Amino acid sequence: MAYNVLGFSEQGRVRESNQDSIFYAVDGERAIALVADGMGGYEGGERASNTVMEHVKRWWRLYHSRTPLPGFWKSVNELQFVLYEAHAAIREENGPDSMAGTTAVILWAEQGMWAVISVGDSRCYQASRPFLKVRINQLTVDDVWENQESVRNKYTDEEIECHEDYGKLTKAVGVHEIAPCSVYSGRFRKNVVYLLCSDGTYRYCSDEAFWDACGLFIDGEMETGMALVKKSIYQNGAPDNLSLVLVWDDNT
């Protein structure tokens, strides 16, 4: 594997600042990518997502100074701990009653494996083209009210969609006592592209543009695909910050 990464993060047309933070880096044999979407007021949200980004960036910087390197699963465990450290730092800065926090989705790729660590509703997708048709899989599950098992057992689908808590986050880094992570993993395959994005991207990019862009990504047209995603979002008003990071095998 020869990993590569590329991404963007923009303010959009409506928000007063960009509360999203992204980070991505690669050393050829390993890749790391992060999208964090701040919440709780533009100053608090911006600080929270930046705190997560700085913690992940510091971990990556120190990673290469270690001998021997920790290996795939130990690195995944360490990145989970990095989010817990960021969670504690945000709570210490803002106080225990603050609602300022951030979502976070991290992808770590190494040794032909990938792992995604997720808190909140920023997402990771997997785009491929088996049998000449683009396929898009959402690898993460949003940490929102309607995805809780207790809610599904209590309400009908129609009641859930009409409920005032529909779409409300149930987990975020920096909010509540703990920020439990969800971890997903699999084999990293050629001709597959992994997309990390904030909700300002997947909510406001049209389905048609998103599918067309994924086809371009699979073909190696990364810049063209990202331009298509941004064009669609801005045509839809870009009411939120928008962020997207791609990870792929450079031998694709």
Describe it.
With 252 residues, this protein is of the alpha+beta class. It has one domain: Phosphatase 2c, domain 1, CATH 3.60.40. The protein has 7 helices and 11 strands. It has helices at 42-63, 72-94, 149-154, 157-162, 199-202, 207-218, 222-235, and strands spanning 3-10, 20-26, 30-39, 101-102, 104-110, 113-119, 123-128, 135-138, 182-187, 193-197, 242-249. The strands form 2 sheets. Strands 2, 3, 4, 5, 6 and 9 form a 6-stranded antiparallel β-sheet that branches. The protein is globular and about 45 Å long. The model has no long low-confidence stretch (mean pLDDT 93).
List the helices and strands and how they pair.
Blueprint: E1 3-10, E2 20-26, E3 30-39, H1 42-63, H2 72-94, E4 101-102, E5 104-110, E6 113-119, E7 123-128, E8 135-138, H3 149-154, H4 157-162, E9 182-187, E10 193-197, H5 199-202, H6 207-218, H7 222-235, E11 242-249
Antiparallel strand pairs: 1-11, 2-3, 3-4, 3-5, 5-6, 6-9, 7-8, 7-10, 10-11
Helix pairs in contact: 1-2, 6-7
